[in-house]
Amino acid sequence: MIQEKLSRIIPEPLRPLARVMYNGLISTRRSINDFRIGRIQTKLLRHNFSHETENLIIFLTPGQDIVNGMILAIYHHYLGTKNLESIHNAEVLMCTLPKDPLLLKYTKFNFRDYVFGFSQVLSYFENLQNLIIHVTIGNLPIFVENLSKEDILRLQRIQNVHINILIQHIGTLQSNIRHIEHLKKIELGKLTATTAHEAYTTLDLRKKLGFPLHKLSTYVSPEFYERKEYDKKRDLLTVSPDYHSKKMEILNTIKKRFPQLKIRIIKNISYEEYKKLISDAKWAITFGEGLDGYFVETIFSGGISFATHNPDFFTEDFKALRTVYGSYEEMAERICEDIETLDNETSYTEYQNEQFKLASKYYNYEKYLKNLELFYKGVYTYP
After folding, report:
1. Does residue 115 have a pLDDT over 80?
2. How many other C-beta atoms are found inside a 10 Å radius of the C-beta of residue 83?
3. Using the 8-state DSSP alphabet, how is residue 227 labeled?
């Protein structure tokens, strides 16, 4: 955005030079910031962890301080893993992806834990015998392509390296097959994959990957949300920030039919603000994968969610829900009628309970922790 503004005020012949100077300034600023954060991280490592540590688990995470569902999922996997120390007997750290900017803490969430640099951690722990690295499928290219020669040499010196690929979005798998094959080729260690959804935790996927597959699910569970009843709800519809070609058509149709209904597209707010918003809202539409946080978290907050049935994420039983449509064309045709029909305490409560019961079948924190425990014991859904 800054570059766009500069391009409007700088003459055309000078723009290439201006871009070089701007990029140089950004690079210098990042170098200074990385140096400052790196010194603090080194002190934290020395104060809290022994050089002689033999067992370590790393969760790779982006070096951007933003609100992001992937970051939230990684953090909760990290927390759940820390609580299972008696099972894996390892130190547990979050590390920024190789060559990402260094980051000390995420400030957009209520996270208390520090983040470290990946290469920094590998060089600090000099006596590692067992290392597990968790990396999301979406971040796999960054991990594979930015591993330095020094990182690879350090990994090769560790007796047991285990790389687990967190598959949170099955749609990103195909574009990352070549990176998975590269990991197989360089033979850094054992490979596994874990999943967030029941729908694609299958034997077929296990065979396609060629290594063990295990269902983790997610931390999302009813007890973590404030479930408000109909009479405590505001006339508010929250909308996921995802792009879809039918999105504005559907929202404009709703706005025209229900001018009193406030429509809020989720963006530029903290996670805690988001949770407060969905506890107040009657309705939510997701234009993402369907069975995502915008859908499930709204239900656990007492709201009614709308989506289309994407078979990559939804299991067949979600088709029975009246607000899970077969297509966006069907959503556009039916959603206003469904809002009108459900917008009374009796109908709303009855249907909200139906959604809540079905979502609770798949999202349960105790089951999630058990799945995580089985992973660290080496007991996989599809070995």
Report:
1. yes
2. 12
3. -
pLDDT, residue 6, reads: 47
Q: Could you tell me whether strands 213-215 and 190-195 are parallel, antiparallel, or unpaired per DSSP bridges?
A: parallel
Q: How far apart are CA 13 and CA 16, in angstroms?
A: 7
pLDDT bracket for residue 25 (50, 70, 90): very low
Mean pLDDT across 265-272:
91
Has residue 184 got a pLDDT over 50?
yes
For the chain, how are helix, strand and coil distributed in percent, rounded to 5?
50, 15, 30
What tens digit of pLDDT does each residue of 329-338 get?
Answer: 999 999 999 9
Sign of the Cα torsion 129, 112, 97, 210 reads: positive
Q: DSSP of 236-276, one letter per residue?
A: EEEE-----TTHHHHHHHHHHH-TTSEEEE--S--HHHHHH
C-alpha distance from residue 105 to each of 15, 25, 81, 175, 302 (Å): 36, 24, 19, 30, 32
Residue 3: what pLDDT? 53
Burial class (CB in 10 A: 0-12, 13-18, 19+), 247: middle
Q: Which residues contact 258 (CB under 8 A, 6 or more apart)?
A: 336, 339
The pLDDT-based confidence of 111 (bands split at 50, 70, 90) is: confident
- Distance separating alpha carbons of residues 302 and 360, to the nearest angstrom: 12
Report d(CA 172, CA 128) in Å as an integer. 32
Q: Which pLDDT score is estimated for 11?
A: 66
Question: How far does Cα 259 stand from its chain's mean position?
Answer: 34
Gap between the Cα atoms of 306 and 323, Å rounded: 5
Q: What is the pLDDT of residues 156-175, one digit of tens each?
A: 999 999 999 999 989 899 99
Q: Which domains does the chain have, with CATH numbers?
A: 35-221+366-376 (3.40.50), 223-363 (3.40.50.2000)
Task: Give φ, ψ of 236 to 5 degrees.
Answer: -140, 135
Q: Which whole number is the average pLDDT over 207-222?
A: 96
> Which residues are CB-neighbours of 173 under 8 A, at least 6 positions away?
137, 167
Are the beta carbons of 266 and 236 closer than 8 angstroms?
Answer: no
